[in-house]
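Progress note, sequence design subtask.
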């Protein structure tokens, strides 16, 4: 098989797949990221041959040589997306073409072989169709999909790998934050930054998340659920949370979110919310917003709500902000009306309860 277009996936059924009764018990309360399906999709890449050996097979451990490049030089990228159960029993993906495009851009930034976008979407579709019984029902439940790619050439040398393994695994999930998190408290990181101009901030690679963990641990020590990062140059402007984009809502009904200048991940949920907000007649500005201005606007009442967003957490209200030099409550400390309205609108489309005017759903069965 060559490197472009769709391919035929060979299928090997997992001989030790989970029994129906055990699966149903797991789906009753899956939590987030701990319950996995029976199968995974894999495709290999090698220079001179391109993408080949497309398979859907049993979910199992990788056998990696200790000198495999990814273990030493971190050539690794991933995506996060979901399959949703529809009211009629069918299932759908949400904007998989956008995930495929971002995955390709991440690969190019990390000097990795770009996976054809149609092959990315095909791999996800194939896996969901086979593990369809793992899609949980209920509000906030979904099948979380994790496509990722790693450098697999066996070599100790700093260079782009000549071989890659692409894989998709799936996890049945409920709410990202325990208890549903009516509003979270976030910690302003002053000691750490997430990304700098010219870096990998707009790529979805593991290194970005590894760099955020010390700050996230600090946030948790301070009694906060998440950390928010400021820009690396002036340490003034709000960029994003540890794993989510952020929006600010004002008394005049407008919204603002930091612009995509290369240091912020271009979130698909972020983009969808901007579109839905404008559909509702709201003004949305993509402009820098300073942390001191955020506090001043919250204290004056000009800012009435703020919320984070991402595939995993969907829309999560921010109630309080804490830091060495900052401490303030946003609105009444709970969910604001715009965040609630946007979350309902997005979930209704994703779960097939409302019309899909933008053609975002990709029905599977």
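Output:
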């Amino acid at each position: 098989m060559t490197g472009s277009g769709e391919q035929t996936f060979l299928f090997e059924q997992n001989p030790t797949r989970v029994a129906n009764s055990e699966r149903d018990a797991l789906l009753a309360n899956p939590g987030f990221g701990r319950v996995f399906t029976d199968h995974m999709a894999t495709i290999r890449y090698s220079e001179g041959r391109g993408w080949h050996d497309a398979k859907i097979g049993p979910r199992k451990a990788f056998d990696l040589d200790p000198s495999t490049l990814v273990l030493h030089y971190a050539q690794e990228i991933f995506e996060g997306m979901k399959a949703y159960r529809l009211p009629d029993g069918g299932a759908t993906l949400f904007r998989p073409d956008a995930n495929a495009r971002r995955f390709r851009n991440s690969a190019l930034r990390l000097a990795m072989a770009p996976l054809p976008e149609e092959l990315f979407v095909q791999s996800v579709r194939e896996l969901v169709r086979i593990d369809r019984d793992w899609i949980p029902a209920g509000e906030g439940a979904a099948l979380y999909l994790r496509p990722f790619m790693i450098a697999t050439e066996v070599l100790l040398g700093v260079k782009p790998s000549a071989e890659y393994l692409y894989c998709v695994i799936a996890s049945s999930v409920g709410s990202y934050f325990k208890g549903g998190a009516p509003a979270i408290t976030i910690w302003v990181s002053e000691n750490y930054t997430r990304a700098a101009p010219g870096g990998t901030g707009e790529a979805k690679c593991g290194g970005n998340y590894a760099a955020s963990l010390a700050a996230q641990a600090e946030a948790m020590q301070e009694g906060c659920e998440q950390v928010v990062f400021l820009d690396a140059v002036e340490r003034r402007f709000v960029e994003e949370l540890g794993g989510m984009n952020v929006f600010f809502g004002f008394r005049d009904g407008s919204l603002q979110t930091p612009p995509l200048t290369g240091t912020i991940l271009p979130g698909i949920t972020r983009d969808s919310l901007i579109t839905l907000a404008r559909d509702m007649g709201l003004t949305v500005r993509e402009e820098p917003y300073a942390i001191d201005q955020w506090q001043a606007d919250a204290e004056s009442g000009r800012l009435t709500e703020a919320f984070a967003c991402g595939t995993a957490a969907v829309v999560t209200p921010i109630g309080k902000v804490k830091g060495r030099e900052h401490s303030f409550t946003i609105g009444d400390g709970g969910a604001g009306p715009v965040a609630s309205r946007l979350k309902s609108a997005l979930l209704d489309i994703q779960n097939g309860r409302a019309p899909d005017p933008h053609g975002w759903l990709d029905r599977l069965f």
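Residues 179-350 form a domain with the D-amino Acid Aminotransferase; Chain A, domain 2 fold (CATH 3.20.10.10). Work on this subtask will continue into the next period as scheduled.
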